[in-house]
Specification:
Length: 385
């Protein structure tokens, strides 16, 4: 019998116990790959479309506070600032609360000039600038809901009622746009229409996005912007675009610490379970080990066989968990796309870490039985002690 065949026969001598152990390991590594991927996304490793030459200017004390739209001209007048645009979160529901995607009120003249990674037809941009109730949608939204140019899109407001108290806003879809790279699902509305029609907070915006001429001066310009409004009724906090989004995501908590805690607890339980399983398998095989030693198997070879079985068991369980995660990517991404949240993408680094962890787990679990087996004398083993 080959070494591989011998290993397989020993692993599956108790098939029910082996498969239950594999299931436990697969669940553990499924959790590991999912949670580490989520943590990487929250850490900003998967942020798409951020630029080193863009700054975000928001209210200092709360992201729900609004800033005067008049700040735009004052920011634009600062040395080193190339362009400024503003955005305001609209929120709202399209047909069903499950149809969640961001909706921003923007200035048509400045928005697309600042976000160079967007692609939009000249006709659509022209229509957006000349139709007061116009809306633009990212191409994936058109595909998802079957929208066509000329459709009237109703949105039930959750934050911004109209002046007459009506919460049903209707927008005319005049075109679509796309991102050069992966981008979020997004609907854009005209700020001037939104501002004059809303019931309160007119003349304010949610935040400004600033493009600087020299990315090397980004921190200097950010300080200059905050200094400009430091003693006003609306102090600001300016940060690089990537830093801003990382801070925004961090409001959910320290995701890295939370996921590490969950994974540590799961793997602690798995180590105990696998260790007990290996010790039980060793006790059942003590006479067999005595026979192997009688036939000329050395102590190191017997120890290596047991250690190899533990590593193979953990590696197989990890493989099943990783495969399950990769299979789940498609339906999970469909849900995330529906919510307009982002993309779940298991990186090679996460898979490599899981594989390395499986080997270490196997060595840790198999070290005790391997050491015990190597110290058994032939007489002790044949007596089953």
């Amino acid at each position: 019998m080959s070494t591989l065949g011998f290993l397989q026969a020993n692993l599956f001598r108790r098939p029910v116990r082996t498969w239950l152990t594999l299931l436990s390991l697969a669940i553990a590594f499924l959790l590991f790959t999912v949670l580490r991927t989520v943590a990487a996304w929250f850490d900003g490793d998967s942020l798409e479309g951020v630029s080193e030459d863009r700054l975000v200017v928001a209210a200092r004390y709360s992201r729900t506070d609004q800033l005067p739209v008049a700040f735009q001209e004052r920011i634009l007048a600062l040395d080193g600032v190339e362009a400024v645009t503003h955005q305001t979160w609209f929120g709202g529901i399209y047909q069903d609360p499950k149809n969640a995607f961001p909706k921003f009120a923007v200035d048509p003249a400045s928005y697309f000039g600042l976000y160079a990674e967007t692609r939009i037809a000249a006709t659509a941009l022209d229509a957006f600038g000349h139709t007061r109730t116009a809306a633009l949608a990212s191409e994936d939204l058109l595909d998802r809901y079957g929208w066509r140019v000329g459709d009237r899109i109703p949105v039930q407001a959750d934050i911004w009622p109209m002046q007459d108290g009506n919460r049903l806003w209707e927008f005319d879809l005049v075109g679509s746009f796309a991102w050069s790279e992966k981008g979020q699902s997004l609907m854009l509305l005209r700020y001037d229409y939104f501002d004059t029609a809303r019931a309160f907070a007119r003349g304010t915006v949610g935040w400004f996005t600033v493009r600087v001429a020299d990315p090397g001066r980004a921190r200097e310009i950010a300080r200059a912007i905050d200094t400009l409004f430091e003693n006003s009724a609306h102090p600001t906090q300016t940060a690089a675009e990537s830093e801003y989004y990382r801070t925004f995501l961090a409001q959910a908590g320290d995701i890295g610490m939370m996921t590490s805690g969950i994974v540590s607890a799961v793997f602690f339980a798995i180590v105990l379970l696998s260790g007990v399983t290996m010790q039980q398998a060793l006790r059942e095989r003590i006479p067999e080990l005595g026979v192997l030693k009688t036939l000329g198997f050395t102590d190191p070879r017997v120890a290596a066989m047991l250690l190899g079985e533990a590593v193979a068991l953990c590696a197989l369980g990890a493989g099943l968990g990783i495969v399950a995660t990769l299979v789940a990517e498609v339906p999970l991404n469909a849900v995330l796309l529906e919510a307009g949240v982002g993309v779940f993408d298991v990186s090679v680094q996460v898979i490599a870490t899981a594989a390395g962890l499986a080997v270490l787990l196997g060595l840790a679990v198999g070290a005790g039985p391997a050491w015990t087996a190597s110290r058994l004398s032939i007489a002790e083993a044949l007596r089953g002690t």
